[in-house]
Model the fold of this input.
Amino acid sequence: MLQTPPAIPGMPEDEIDTPALVIDLDAFEHNLDTMAALLAPTGAKLRAHAKTHKSATVARLQASRGGAVGQCVQKVGEAEALAWGGIGDIIVTNEVVGASKLRRLMGLATLARVSVCVDDAAQVAMLEDAAEATGGRIETLVEIDIGMARCGVAPGPDAVALAERIAGSRHLMFGGIQAYHGRAQHFRSVDERAAAIGAAGDATRRTVEQLRQRGLECRIVGGAGTGTFALEAASGIWNEIQAGSYAFMDADYARNLDEAGAPVSTFRHALFVLATVMSAPKPGLAVLDVGHKGVAIDSGMPLVWGMGDVAFVGASDEHGKLTWDGGARSLKLGQKLRLVPGHCDPTVDRYDWYVGVRAGRVESVFPVDARGAMR
Done:
């Protein structure tokens, strides 16, 4: 059920009904500007990943202000939400299986340029059937496994064989390579990240060259993420950067370290869950009105913004437990606190609305268009 918006433009942040998903617009705009500036000299283009934000509004801002050439999604439902919202270039960076999903995907070709990934010849056959049934064609990328150990065909000859199968189809167009090393995004040290992307780059470069030798050019060599984008962009191999979390940042990405061993500070925390103290039964203990249902904890507990001495130590369905070491600290009933989610992507999926705030006031309210788009 679509929930009532928790705020209206012009109200003070402290009057927002909670729990609420809040974007600090100054920090958000800083992140868009920073990514655009960092990628500009490399020649690599940003194709922002909408699995993070799930919003046509954010996607449009990433294009107009952040230089994004398009968006990535993981699900057909996410692609539909963006295409219906006017986004014109979308890659499903995932395999899609099932006649219904594939026909829906083909149907989007009338609204946007849509591409999809495969890692198996049987998926190619399924795509062909859907394309023939709808009278369309679709650009298709070969996903290679460069260290994620999830989806993807082996780099080299296996990938080339699959690309040739696509290129020989009347209904498909070979578009390039999807080469994403997701695990490397969260390797904490610079050296770990560099080593992982170095090896991934060798495998990707080799595959692209073998494709070229067979007369197959890659329009897209896509991959990378918020944790490693600078490495892929500088490599000369990847030409599209699929970062998503950079726009919002979360507590987990903030644990990555730079060359000096300090937390990476390229991007600012822009996404928060606003919560209210609903109980303060004794000194050093308070309970918020947000638990599992309001903030994802798969990548650790959220951080309490601006209160380094206060820890979010536990969550149940509707409660979040805060503790601190007594002293002068006091949290009062009704007090509003910002939480930095451990993982922004699934946290966003818990909400129907974004509330954009600036200088302590609500500036905008807009929907999370692809919330719950699991199919």
Q: What stands out?
A: The domain at 27-250 is CATH 3.20.20.10 (TIM Barrel).
